[in-house]
Amino acid sequence: MKHVSIWLFISLFVALQSHAKSVVIPQQLLNHTDTYGNVSLRNSAELILPDPLVIKGNLNLENSQIRQLPNTLTVNGNLNLAYSDIEYLPAQLHIGGYLNLAHSKIAAISEGLQVQGDLSLMGTQLTKLPSHLYVGGDLYLANSSITELPEYLVVKGNIYLGGVTITYIPDQAQIDGTIFQ
């Protein structure tokens, strides 16, 4: 009986370990960081990233199984979340470059998001953009379900619709470039 209970304990421990999320400590990120401060966790399993997290260069989480970003995230370069399992962006998010959410599982974007470069929402299930959205580059909406542009939208570049039909553009929207169908 004692051998059975030890075997059962070991089996449960191994099973729980295989389903637990790995917690990444900042020193472990060094294994994924290049000399320019870029961090790549592309195609990674589900992980818990340190909070707060500051990335000197780009952060690439493309096709990762990471579901949640740190509450406070600063990426001085680009943030690539394409094809990722991320559903929500953190409240305290600072991006110095572009934000790629193409084909991700993003469910909503919080009001007042500021992206200094391009913002790609291609192939997402989003139906609404937040008010006071700032995009310092181009906005890509192809294959999304967005039909209206939000109040107080600022896009310094172009908007690429890729077949999406926009039914409403508010008077307060500032689009410095061209809207391409």
Quick overview:
With 181 residues, this protein is α/β, with parallel strands linked by helices.
Jot down its keywords.
alpha/beta; elongated; 4-stranded parallel β-sheet
Structural class: alpha/beta
Q: Please, what is the average pLDDT?
A: 88
Radius of gyration, taken over Cα atoms and rounded to an integer in Å: 20 Å
> How is the biggest beta sheet arranged?
8 strands, parallel
What sequence of helices (H) and strands (E) makes up the elements?
HEHEEEEEEEEEEEEEEEE
Compute the number of helices: 2
Terminal CA distance reads: 71 Å
Work out the strand percent: 15-25%
Q: Within the largest sheet, what's the order of strands?
A: 2-5-7-9-11-13-15-17
Shape assignment: elongated
Low-confidence runs: 4-20
The portion of residues assigned to helices is 10-25%
State the total count of DSSP E strands: 17
Write structural notes for this entry.
- The chain is an alpha/beta fold and 181 residues long.
- The chain contains two helices and 17 strands.
- The longest helix is centred in the N-terminal third of the chain and has 18 residues, at 2-19.
